[in-house]
Design brief:
InterPro entries: ArchSynthase1/Queuine_TRR (IPR050076), TGT (IPR004803), TGT-like_sf (IPR036511), tRNA_ribo_trans-like (IPR002616)
Pfam families: TGT
CATH superfamily of the largest domain: Queuine tRNA-ribosyltransferase-like
Protein name: Queuine tRNA-ribosyltransferase
Largest sheet: 8 strands, parallel, barrel
Helix content: 40-55%
Pathway: tRNA modification; tRNA-queuosine biosynthesis
Strand order of the largest sheet: 4-5-6-10-11-12-13-14
Number of domains: 2
Number of strands: 16
Strand content: 15-25%
CATH topology of the largest domain: TIM Barrel
Shape: globular
GO molecular function: metal ion binding; tRNA-guanosine(34) queuine transglycosylase activity
Structural class: alpha/beta
Length: about 375
């Protein structure tokens, strides 16, 4: 159940109650694609840095290790030792981005695994079955991720198919949740709005899927090559046509600035690989902008990555030591940078929630963005 606690302009402060705990929104979901955060980060670490939701990937867990094996362990929560909410994305994006050879039909998609080349078929029912085996808190509907750019005709046909697939996902999830041996009989389903940068297609699709009374609604197919301005415009035009009393999730986005702008347009769920990927390459986020810890200027720097930061890296280590670890290719350097970045994101979301509650989100957003643009 989602409760809208406070609005400040379009910015929403909400609370989603799930079988695995309460999610305070706006929230950033920490990405653990194969049931692990890249950078040697454990689930105990995630709790220490204030993570509310972990995100894992249906496609990757299906092709490697396998969802049926994970079901034998009692689902993903027990398998990875995490008792808070998990969202699994449907595998749609990976099927369309990783599979070199694929064939789309009304039933679903046939493709070759990027791991071993074996033939796999995935459609709405298969995606729901895999996610049911994983037992995640929130399952994402299986959708087609159209290429960018795409013609209007292609986009319309693709969106219409995604709508038909969504109905099948909902029907199959209802069936799976009613089974006696299902891992999580309270699994939620989020639908996905598509339409590229075609405003009218996005809006019509939003209206259509809103009638289905799902647990939440995502915007997919953004951050795939369009400009930030185009993305913000689509959010501005589309979000008002999605139910305000349900979570709104912008998939795969983004930078701290992207998140701040999207919150201002009514989005309250986010995920992105940036904080972990950048951290593994020694790039860290601060309130004064992004730092490259490989820079020689940090060689004798006694300060933490950011003064006042309470993450595990900043509480104990200097910039000089972290740079030394990275230069020496020691895994600890990568791990500390990832922990710092995830802590930065999780803390920013907490600040966002407080700013909305206090009714000064616009001022907070401007101050935060101005600070990060200093570099």
């Amino acid at each position: 159940m989602y409760e809208l606690i406070k609005k400040d302009g379009r910015a929403k402060r909400g609370r989603l109650t799930t079988v695995h705990g309460v999610i305070e929104t706006p929230v950033f979901m920490n990405v653990g694609t194969v049931a692990a955060i890249k950078g040697a980060v454990s689930t105990d670490d995630l709790k220490d840095i204030g993570t509310q939701v972990e995100l894992s990937n249906t496609y990757h867990l299906h092709v490697r290790t396998g969802d049926k094996l994970i079901k034998e362990f009692g689902g993903l929560h027990k398998f990875m030792h995490w008792d808070r909410p998990i969202l699994t994305d449907s595998g749609g994006f990976q099927v369309f981005s990783l599979a070199k050879l694929r064939k789309i039909k009304e039933e679903g998609v046939s493709f070759a695994s990027h791991i071993d080349g074996r033939k796999i078929f995935m459609g709405p029912e298969e995606s729901m079955q895999i996610q049911s085996n994983l037992g995640s808190t929130i399952a994402m509907a299986f959708d087609e991720c159209p290429p960018h750019p795409a013609t209007r005709e292609y986009m319309q046909n693709s969106v219409d198919r995604t709508t038909r697939w969504l109905r099948r996902c909902k029907k199959e999830m209802d069936r799976l949740n009613s089974l006696e041996d299902t891992v999580n009989p309270h699994q939620m389903l989020f639908g996905i709005n598509q339409g590229g940068t075609f405003e009218d297609i996005r809006i019509e699709h939003a209206k259509e899927i809103s009638k289905m009374d799902l647990d939440g609604y995502a915007l997919g197919g953004l951050a795939v090559g369009e400009t930030h301005e185009e993305m913000y415009n689509i959010l501005e035009k589309t979000v008002p046509y999605l139910p305000e009393d349900k979570p709104t999730y912008l998939m795969g986005v983004g930078t701290p600035v992207n998140i701040l702008e999207a919150v201002d347009r009514g989005v309250d769920f986010f995920d992105c690989v940036y904080p972990t990927r950048n951290g593994r390459h020694g790039h860290v986020y601060t309130n004064q902008g992004k730092l490259n810890m490989f820079n020689k200027k940090y060689e004798l720097d006694h300060r933490p990555i950011e003064e006042g930061c309470q993450c595990p890296a900043c509480r104990s280590y200097s910039r000089a030591y972290i740079r030394h670890l990275l230069k020496a290719k020691e895994m600890l350097g990568m791990r500390l940078c990832v922990l710092h970045n995830l802590y930065f994101y999780n803390t920013m979301m907490s600040e966002i929630r407080q700013a909305i509650e206090e009714g000064n989100y616009k001022e907070y957003k401007k101050r935060k963005i101005d600070g990060m643009m200093n570099q």
